[in-house]
């Protein structure tokens, strides 16, 4: 009791108005912010890769494999924040063994497994199979065996087999797009279906989540592409970059329109919660929502890329603006997740008061672990890029 | 048949093998790890019910206490704490019921125990006895004035605010601050001793508020006044105006 009182007393000073006792402390913290952010990057990166294949966008071919491997690296890390948040990761396999079809959260394992195994790994395997066989022939020692194992000891690189690979990739891509929509739409669904929370409960939530995911995924690939190529001392292809920026621009317009629609809808409906939500947006969320998410993360990058579409500028300046815009978009989308997850818990269900979120530095819910989880996919990407080089010149043909 | 098998692309066969391995492993692991009685009653193990039922009992239950402490029960059954079970204050006492001399239940005597329920909190129901412990007879343990098994106040409260703390606080900053509660409520003397059995009255008509707020009444200069016949005639006043803070929107 003493301990609880000591823990809650400093938080109580931050509470304004009237709130229920169990609302003083937030139940979903930084880790639950990171989870939708990471899955969004996965879905976005994969959808970009799928667009390349389905619409045969030649300019974006150099980013196809980068996007697939980036999606895989982030997908591997995506469930970790949940495991850390829930505790007892050693029990997590039970959601597979005894599936509860009445719980959207409990079905996460299957949505995740389907996306990982039936879509992402399969597409990467078919795309790399021929290269793996050829690379393994020129390698020796353990790397040879790793490559052979990844290729499942496949050896057929006849024209017919490669043709089949291409056909399979096309089919998987077609299944993959709705699967990616389901993966991230599902995350939005989890929030959107919480009817007791007016900040979350909206049928638009899965769609807004999805488009913000595509925005963040494309921006991430743009950053990775612009970061990795100079390191490898390769020239950045401006056509590729312009195309990526164009896609980013158009999807951001859709995302922005959807968010505006959501906003207008809420204001026009003016349900009983509107007053406290207004207080929330103009007070505790002002910096993260209006300044970071809207102005820094949306309007400035939109304006910057929009201006580049009209005004001709030197390529070097263009690159810098694209890179900076993509970074701002990432900050903005992270802020979006923050505003949804944390924002939705800052107001009382009595609609009469606001609480505050106190982040810890150490521990399973702390800032340090969260930073580690955000950096971990980059480490995995490094390993994946080493073993499965996504560069055009590494392709066997 | 063999020819047909040979025409299946090599990739498909390799992936099929992996798929079969995954499915077989999943089926075996599931058969091994999921208890047989899982799902018989619901999304849990049937055996868990018996396991939970076989856990050591810590609470004896009020009926057990009554077997020996019938004198206290009699005191308690007439008091406000009649619906509060013994073990709410005395803690789990199953061991005490089995070996009364060996295990003694706790008996809270310190001042910080009673405020767990009786400290003033806006969310507590109006009429529930609440105090601000910092100013309510500081330092004195509660039991020096209140008998916990029949906790009547040592003297009848003088002010309505003793029980109606929240209303009193709201009213104290409203335009009705200087009105006594009895201006609008008729309070039987017995209400102080048995509040629910002798409820205070509440105004029932528009005309009641009109005594001060009707236009024709000139006794109250400065009081907001309206034409009772014209001003929202289909409603009673308190549908729009909260009487304890009438200026609130």
Please give a structural write-up.
The complex is a heterodimer of chains A (397) and B (249). Helices cover 71% and strands 1% of the residues of chain A. With 397 residues, chain A is mostly helical. In chain A, strands 1-2 form a two-stranded antiparallel sheet. In chain A, helix 8 (159-192) packs across helix 9 and helix 9 (205-231) runs antiparallel to helix 13. The model of chain A has no long low-confidence stretch (mean pLDDT 91). Chain B is mainly alpha-helical. Chain B has a domain at 110-177. Chain B is built from 11 helices and 2 strands, in the order H-H-E-E-H-H-H-H-H-H-H-H-H. Chain B has a two-stranded antiparallel sheet. In chain B, strand 1 and strand 2 form a beta hairpin. The model of chain B has no long low-confidence stretch (mean pLDDT 88). Chain A binds chain B through residues 18, 20-21, 96-98, 100, 102, 117, 122, 125-126, 129, 152-156, 160-161, 164-165, 168, and chain B through 9-11, 14-15, 17-18, 22, 26, 29-30, 33-34, 38-39, 43, 122-123.
Radius of gyration of chain A from CA coordinates: 23 Å
Distance between the termini of chain A: 69 Å
Q: Low-confidence runs of chain B (pLDDT<50, min 5 residues)?
A: none
Helix segment tally of chain A? 14
The number of strands of chain B is 2
Query: What is the strand content of chain B?
Result: under 5%
Q: Poorly predicted ranges of chain A (pLDDT <50, ≥5 residues)?
A: none
Report the sheet-strand fraction of chain A.
under 5%
Radius of gyration of chain B: 33 Å
